Amino acid sequence: MSVTQHNIVKSAQGASNSAIRHDWTRAEVEAFYAMPFNDLLFQAQIIHRQHFDPNEVQVSTLLSIKTGACPEDCKYCPQSARYDTGLEKERLLEIEKVIQRAREAKQTGSTRFCMGAAWRNPKERDMPYLTQMVAEVKSLGLETCMTLGMLTRDQALALKQAGLDYYNHNLDTSPEFYGDIITTRTYQDRLDTLQHVRDAGMNVCSGGIVGMGETVADRAGLLMQLANLPEHPQSVPINMLVKVEGTPLDKLDDMEPFDFIRTIAIARIMMPASHVRLSAGRENMNEQMQALCFMAGANSIFYGCKLLTTSNPDTHEDVMLFKKLGINTERTRDYSDEAHALLLEEAMEQQQQAPDDLFYDATAGKKAGKQAETV
Predict the structure, then answer these.
(1) Catalytic-labelled residue, pool 145, 219, 282, 293
(2) Active site residue: 101, 112, 190, 205, which one?
(3) Catalytic status, residue 305
């Protein structure tokens, strides 16, 4: 190892402690990316254990309450009205249907129910409907989360008063690379919405997407923006781009799996008390890659076979992976042990009937025809 490389590693190791910081520098973050992989994961795992049970993962379920016809031009998103991805538009779901899906999510072990609408921002005529939806899901004993686009200060307050626990609004990428991905809203627009959410007293869910053709410096810039916010997001989703035919990013090369795992580990080091969510792209990750992500500090996922418009591993696959790894799920107060036991038994029966494919190429995945979503 050269003197320069040695100094970079020492700098990163010195920066990786469990203190909550909001003054990260670009040099520190890029030094993390230059660390040997095993050293980085070791540092991340130490910090993770200082703040969380290392064998517990928070589980959420995500439902699209309004699909397609979004006026934004986000180049990764199949819900943009500007791209022909074959996605059918859907109106805002009836509250009764949303409540039924929330009950089903709770029975399979989710503790948080997330509702997403493909909007630039909610209209005032939609707010009474949305606040009623939040209140009724909350009454089931679930944490509530929404992603509806940009919010005004008054809209954030109304959702908080209805009982909304979390609001998701991703920064997506670094400020420098942002204009290459989105032109219909500014980076400051996103930061303003996050400020409105914080001011209303809600928890912030904010992360980004990697694998969009960005540089390591851009990944460092994204994590810097998140970690240097006035308060760290309570939930930090790290999404791996799933390419969607018809979007401008559908021909990009696949992201190197170890680069993705590094990003998870660095997010854990920089935001030690936040839940780091292993989010979009899990359908293309094998069990070994996901296990390394959990080792790197990921401790939140979505259950269910669909994320808004995209594929996600079936719930029984996640249950079986958790069983193999000895991972437990965070539970709501009146969570049904019987329902979880039944789900586990069903998953084990399916596993016994399937061929043994425990080891396979970490870069292989079911890529054809997948639709991407980032939450």
Answers:
(1) 145
(2) 205
(3) no
3-state SS assignment for residue 73 = coil
Angle at 260 between CA 257 and CA 261, to 5 degrees: 90
Q: Does 272 score more than 80 pLDDT?
A: yes
277 in catalytic set:
yes
Q: What is the DSSP letter of 370?
A: -
The answer to whether the beta carbons of residues 209 and 239 sit under 8 Å apart is yes
Comparing CA positions, the residue from 51, 27, 32 lying closest to residue 262 is 32
Residues 10-63: pLDDT tens digits? Answer: 556 556 666 899 999 999 999 999 999 999 999 999 999 999 999 999 988 888
Average pLDDT value for residue range 76-97 = 59
Residues 196/167, Cβ–Cβ less than 8 Å? no
| The token pair that represents 316 in the structure block | 């029984």
Asked about 74 being catalytic, the answer comes back as yes
Lowest mean pLDDT of 68-72, 83-87, 183-187, 346-350, name the range: 83-87
- Residue 239 sits at φ, ψ, to 5 deg, of -100, 135
Q: Residue 373's pLDDT is what?
A: 47
Q: Which of 21, 26, 49, 77 is catalytic?
A: 77
Confirm if 223 and 270 have CB atoms less than 8 A apart. yes
The answer to whether 274 and 233 have CB atoms below 8 angstroms apart is yes
CA pseudo-torsion sign 272, 222, 116, 131: positive
Is residue 293 among the annotated active site residues?
no
Q: Which residue has the higher pLDDT, 127 or 361?
A: 127
Q: Which residue of the set 114, 190, 219, 268 is catalytic?
A: 114
Known catalytic membership, residue 77: yes
Where on the phi/psi map is residue 297: left (φ > 0), alpha (ψ -120 to 50), or beta?
left
Which of the pair, 67 or 110, is modelled with greater confidence?
110
- Residue identified by tokens 């029975």 is 107
Quick one: which of 89, 95, 84, 100 has its CA closest to 66? Answer: 89
DSSP secondary structure, 260-323, as one string: HHHHHHHHHHHSTTSEEEE-TTGGG--HHHHHHHHHTT--EEEESSEETTEE---HHHHHHHHH
Q: 336: buried, middle or exposed (CB in 10 Å: 19+, 13-18, 0-12)?
A: middle
- When the pLDDT of each residue in the chain is averaged and rounded to a whole number, the result is 81
